[in-house]
TrEMBL record:
<feature type="domain" description="FAD/NAD(P)-binding">
    <location>
        <begin position="32"/>
        <end position="251"/>
    </location>
</feature>
<dbReference type="GO" id="GO:0016491">
    <property type="term" value="F:oxidoreductase activity"/>
</dbReference>
<dbReference type="InterPro" id="IPR023753">
    <property type="entry name" value="FAD/NAD-binding_dom"/>
</dbReference>
<dbReference type="InterPro" id="IPR036188">
    <property type="entry name" value="FAD/NAD-bd_sf"/>
</dbReference>
<protein>
    <recommendedName>
        <fullName>FAD/NAD(P)-binding domain-containing protein</fullName>
    </recommendedName>
</protein>
<dbReference type="Pfam" id="PF07992">
    <property type="entry name" value="Pyr_redox_2"/>
</dbReference>
Amino acid sequence: PRNILERDIKYIEAMGVRIKTGVKFGIDVTLDDLKKEGTAAVIIAIGTYQGLKMGVENEGSTNGYIDCLAFLRDYARGEQVVLGDKVIVVGGGNAAIDAARSALRCGVKEVSILYRRSYQEMPADRNEIEEAQAEGVEINYLSAPVRIIEKGGEVRGLECVKAELGELDESGRRRPVPIAGSEFVVNATSIISAVGQQPDLSWNKEGLAFSVSPKNTLLVDDNCHTNIEGVFAAGDAVNGPTTVVEAMANGKKAASAVDVYLSGKA
Ligand SMILES: Cc1cc2nc3c(=O)[nH]c(=O)nc-3n(C[C@H](O)[C@H](O)[C@H](O)COP(=O)(O)OP(=O)(O)OC[C@H]3O[C@@H](n4cnc5c(N)ncnc54)[C@H](O)[C@@H]3O)c2cc1C
């Protein structure tokens, strides 16, 4: 809730933290700028603000296909979002649930979630899943997107395929394996993609060269220190999409590491 957020921000400011809004690190202010200002240590905690692609045909080129974060941002700003009567949200995390419930609040008649694994593997919070279903969101498990169906550049539906669970993958969850011949089509006026996020590191170029993982997250050592002297990183930008609690815990760890770094206790 916004009032809780406001209270927390005021609390942080009262502790002496100066907050500059509307400034993009790497674009409006660079690491060099900060160093020239005499900044001795930096913590990068930029979250994961780049939506991943579903990797299906017609993605991105069709009107009615929307990235989850863009949709939630526009909705939160009170902008008018035209979704039509039937929305499919693809994904299984809290972001997918938020998008589905927000779509209902936009007045959409039918909202369904398409998730490629089963309920057990779904990363969204259990209570959020139940609340979404109680509000009327339908969840289709073990179903994966194959192709966005369009006509004249407008979304008309989603071709999907049924999946079964196979061997464990690198995430420790059973891998969804498409069942040949089980393709089916769901009509839709809009498709919201919520299949994951990564940090927006588009600024990490031209001589900066922060080390990144294969998942495009910032690499740090045990003390949250990046490969660049005096620059630390924390939260989802390091660990990928997690939870508020985990990001806050990691932020505290980074703050302690900076304290040690600045006071030369290490
Ligand atoms: C839709 C959605 C729903 C979620 N629901 C839940 C939930 O129910 N429960 C839960 O525990 N977690 C939830 N999460 C996850 C949770 O929000 C994150 O794990 C947590 O906020 C990460 O904290 P962070 O500080 O690392 O990054 P963030 O909270 O993402 O903050 C990063 C900040 O950095 C800013 N930023 C980005 N790039 C730059 C730049 N170049 N320069 C300056 N600033 C920049 C961003 O605008 C943002 O304000 C959800 C996430 C999403 C996307």
